[in-house]
Design a protein that fits this description.
By secondary structure, the chain is an alpha+beta fold. The chain has helices spanning 24-48, 63-70, 87-93, 118-127; strands at residues 2-5, 8-12, 57-60, 98-101. The strands form two sheets. The protein has a two-stranded antiparallel ribbon with strand order 1-2. Strand 1 and strand 2 form a beta hairpin.
Length: 134
């Protein structure tokens, strides 16, 4: 997970999930729920500091997980997912956050969990505004 505020990277984390997911969609929903919690915490912090904050956007590259988060009812493939993991669905329905799809090649959080080839690593580094210092 990479959290950006006003275009700057302020928080990042990669961790092993506590729950065993039985599908890629389930794993993505668990990760989205964790990211949504961090987004809401940051939103409330910024509001407490007096900033005006737009609706946070949760970017994901798994269309099934994004559809599941936006769909008002359970689908046959999502009915096995525990309620606590569907917290992101509640946040989307209450319009606290919104979800958007991005291509896997544009997913900034991949740098935390995957080995990226040189050009892709450079692109992610530049998108995160990380610079080498001497």
């Amino acid at each position: 997970m990479v959290l950006q505020v006003f275009g700057n990277c302020v928080f990042w984390r990669s961790k092993v999930q506590d729950t065993i997911a039985d599908s890629t969609m389930h794993a993505e929903i668990i990760a989205m729920t964790s990211a949504a919690n961090e987004m809401l915490w940051m939103k409330h912090l910024l509001l407490d500091l007096g900033f005006t904050v737009a609706q946070p956007v949760l970017w994901g590259d798994n269309k099934s997980a994004l559809f599941c988060a936006e769909c008002e009812h359970l689908t046959p493939k999502s009915r096995h997912i525990e309620r606590k993991d569907m917290y992101v669905k509640d946040l989307v329905q209450r319009q606290y956050i919104k979800t958007e799809w991005c291509q896997s090649s544009d997913q900034l959080a991949d740098v935390m969990t995957k080995v990226l080839p040189g050009p892709a690593l450079t692109a992610v580094r530049d998108a995160l505004q990380l610079r080498l210092t001497s």
